[in-house]
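Fig. S4 source data, part A: sequence.
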Amino acid sequence: MAMPITVVTVSIKTILDDVSQYLQYEIDEGTLSVEIPNAMRQRTASPKQNAPAPVADNSVSQELTKIAQVVSECRNCRLHQTRTNTVPGQGSVSPEILFVGEAPGEDEDLQGLAFVGRAGQLLTKMIEAMGFSRDQVFIANILKCRPPANRPPEEDEMQACLPYLKAQIALLKPKVMVGLGATAVKGLLGTTVGITKLRGKWHSYEGIDFMPTFHPSYLLRYAPAKKEAWDDLQEVLRRIGKEPPPRKREP
């Protein structure tokens, strides 16, 4: 009985690729000198040459994850006794803008995410009005844990938590920081001047341009201040060389 014959189909492209790889190997070893056509070089080019991996972004992401892990185990102040989740902050690993509030609220404590309650929804609209999405900026708080009953952070709590934020800032390297509300601005700048006098004027935080403005929760209580807050955010855009997109008309 005749043995069955297995037919193997090999494309011309496969053969050329194999030959090209062999010739390139011989050249690299110094045992052969031959000019490989450009078309064949393109087929055998190393992926690293064609599309470099974003090593820097991956490194920043990994370091931010490490900080978040340390935060989740933190016992440096009394707030660990009452928290549900820590809230390290979230967003882009290479943001142009970093928004900093004072502390998580109830919704943030439950979800482990910064600015997701009513004030967070307003902040999202403010960010989108600037021409960004939340994923294109970074959003954080001075405190990574919610104070009981949403009371204002105390000085020792902010001092215990600030090193985490400073470590994040050093990794993120934002062009501009926006301080949201009097408590956040006081915690970062160490000033007792009121937010109404500080807002709209440029300051510096560890060499980074810093713009104080109203906290979204205040804007929910006092709508007329939204215009001033929008003026502040437009100034931030000018500082990074951008303009807000055209405003959509309400239906």
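Fig. S4 source data, part B ends here. Residues 1-12, 31-53 have pLDDT under 50 and may be disordered.
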